Structure formats: C-alpha cells, structure tokens
Amino acid sequence: MTGQDPSPRRAPPSRSRMSDVARLADVSPATVSRALRQPQMVSASVRARIAEAIERLSYRPNLMAGALASARSATVAVIIPSLINSFFAATVDALEEGLRGSGLQLMIGNSRYSPETEEQLVLSFLAWSPAAIVLTGRRHTKRTVKALLDSALPVFEMWELSDHPIDEIIGFSQSAIGAAVVRHFAERGARRLGFVGAMMDLDYRAADRRAGFVEAAVQAGFAPPAEAWIEGPASASAGASAFGRLLDGAPEVDAVFFTNDALALGGLFEAQRRELATPQRIRLCGFGDLDFASASEPPLTTVRPPRQQIGAKIAELLRARMAGAEAVGGSHDLGFELAVRGTT
C-alpha cells in the first residue's frame, strides 16, 4: 500500500541500539548480532523475539559501526526507477558533477517503478548510514516514509512537486505538462485529440501527464481524447503500433500527445507509412527532448524537462546542508519548456 504527501516536520530521534533490541528481546547483544549476520545459528523462537523487538524499535543496523568515527558515511543514496532511461541518467550525472570535490559519492539503486522495491532499497541503504537519500517521485510506501522520517537524514525527492514533501522536493508539475500540450494543440488548430502512453499502471508520472492532458482537453471544449496504451516499456516500435491502433479506432484524430519521445518517434514513422502529412494532417508531441528529437524529419515537437537542473539543484541544496545550513523544506519548482518544432 502506498501513501503520499507525508508531513515534513521531523524531530531528530535518538537512534535505537543493538543493546536496546537485546534488552527488549531478553537476549544478549551477541545473540542479536548473530541473528542478523548468521540467522541459521539462532533458534526460530529467539529470531522471532528479536524480529519483533527490531520492528518495535525501528532499529536499523549500522553496517559502518566501528569503521568510521563519524555517524554518517560519505555516500549519498540515490534511487531511480530505471537505469536505462536517459531522463534519470542525466539527472544523476548532473548530481554527481555538482558534488564533485565535496567528498561525497553516489550509491545508486534501481526501483524498477516498484514502491516495494524502493522500500527495500531505502532500508538497505539506511543500514550504511548515508549522508543523504535522494528518491524519485513523491509516492512511497508508508514504511519507506516512516523509516526516512525516523532517520532525520536530508531527503530529496525529485522529478515532481508536492505541498508536503518528506523534506525537500525538486522538480516540476507533471499534470501542467499535459495542460500545456493541449493549449499548444488548440493554438495550432487541432480539432480531435489523441494520447499514447506506456507503462501507465507503473509510471504514475506519465499517468499524471495523461490526467492533466485529458482534464485540460475537456475543459477546453474538446471531446475526451482517443487513447492507446502500451503495457511494456516505451520504444519506437511500440509507439508505431499503438499510434496505428489509435488511428484505426479514431481516424479523425489530428493531434496526439505521447508520454515519451521514443513513442512519438514511432508515431512519426507510422504517420509517414500511412502518408499522413505532418503537421498538416497530424500533429505530434512527445516528452523528454531526447537527442534524436531535434534530428528527426520533421523535427519532433516535445516537452523539455529540467533533467540536468534537477541534479544540479539537489547538489546545491545538499552542499548547503552539509555546511550546516538549515533545511528550508518545501517544493522547488524548476518548470519545463515546450520545444516547438516541425511536427506541430
């Protein structure tokens, strides 16, 4: 079960120790250590008591204990939903560049768009006492949120906005993107809108862009957009197939928003196969401003998110926090740009 918009107000708690777990479970600290490191050496009943004590105390074993004099390591844990998506790769690269010379190093985790996987990564990373944690998005499991609030670490959520971040959130409004695309299509004389998306059940940022697009379309007097969704990851071939299905079901569509540039490129290829002139007959807009968008023929209109700026801003905020600055909290809206090109 996931939750969102938790309260950002946190008081630094005293960290539970192994001796506290041992006292509550009525065993020795050595037995707790053995249960954590060699559980097969401890009876099931004793392991159960220790597990219950750990849960009650929110105990997180510090794997760096004894190795460092500092309570925090020099690592920054960063969790992104995809290692192959260039959106997030650009942000991580800018974050790494922004921390150059600070002594901080990144430790990367891949959640694969799963809140449960993110939770396990957060709990694992906390055991290494990182200097800070960076998460993608604002929606996390309740256990993830509790663990982060209890940790009193600097926490930076990114690629979205929220009125109630865990600590600080840096990004832009996903739903506002959908609304901006509707306005652009209307200005270009579009009469019937369409939408193509991928992984809509997992990628809720794409789902938010769709929601903004559909809501703005109806408010502007358009009929509800025709839609085609893809279950798997975005690709040009998947975009061509979905765009073809959309046109087969709603041939009157003359403007389509794709939640990813790869999908939009596939749509452009399919339009050319069907001899649909772009933008005279069909208008296409993607998201991401990937490298190929400006090199396609015609060049692809797309939404440009602040990929590098997000990473750079997190680095700036983290450096300030490490230097002793007070946490300001709240959302940092970096906005987005509509790159208008040949497909509209």
Automatic annotation (TrEMBL):
PROSITE patterns: HTH_LACI_1, HTH_LACI_2. One of its GO terms (molecular function) is transcription cis-regulatory region binding. It comes from Alsobacter sp. KACC 23698. Keywords: DNA-binding, Transcription, Transcription regulation. It comes from the Bacteria. InterPro entries: HTH_LacI (IPR000843), LacI/GalR-like_sensor (IPR046335), Lambda_DNA-bd_dom_sf (IPR010982), Peripla_BP_I (IPR028082). Residues 1-21 are annotated as: Disordered. Residues 16-70 form the HTH lacI-type domain. This is LacI family DNA-binding transcriptional regulator. It holds the Pfam family LacI.
